[in-house]
Amino acid sequence: MGLIGGIVLIVCGLLCIPALVAQKSPQAAEQLKKLAPVQGWIGLIVAIWGLWGIISAVMTLGWLSTWPLWWITNLAGNVMSLLLGIILGYGMIQQYALAKASDAVKAKAEETYKKLTGAQSSLGIIGIILGLWVVLYNLVLQRIFTI
Q1: Number of folded domains that form the chain
Q2: What are 72-130's pLDDT values in tens digits?
Q3: Which helix (H) or strand (E) holds 108?
Q4: Closest Cα partner for 12 from 141, 116, 142?
Q5: Residues 34, 76 contacting (CB under 8 angstroms)
Q6: Fewer CB near the terminus (10 Å): N or C of the chain?
Q7: Calpha distance 27→12 (Å, rounded)
Q8: Does residue 16 form part of some domain?
Q9: How many angstroms separate the Cα of 18 from the Cα of each of 23, 31, 33, 126?
């Protein structure tokens, strides 16, 4: 979860809260509408990226003793990427990953998706805040801690 990961979190967070963004800035709302056709692909890619990031964080568990703040930030950012990616890319996930799944798996996926969409705005705001933290950490704090 580097600088690009933080920016991706911010964008995904903004895509998850279009109503709140539209109230604050009509221009931003127009730009988000332009991204709507590719929102599913963005979500699918971000979900896969988040899942890989979680696996990588678990594989580098030893960093927790050396760089605990970075490891926690990395894990939290990747979990949030996975959640926001699932929300944004559920249609694509349903089309490609769940197409041949059993009815029980499809029902569980739909139940999970409904829970996530219930908290979509909150997760979007958390994603934006976490994305800003990741960007700040990469631009400023990481250089301070490594000196």
Answers
A1: 1
A2: 999 999 999 999 998 888 878 877 778 888 888 888 888 888 888 788 889 999 999 99
A3: helix 103-118
A4: 116
A5: no
A6: C
A7: 17
A8: no
A9: 9, 10, 9, 14
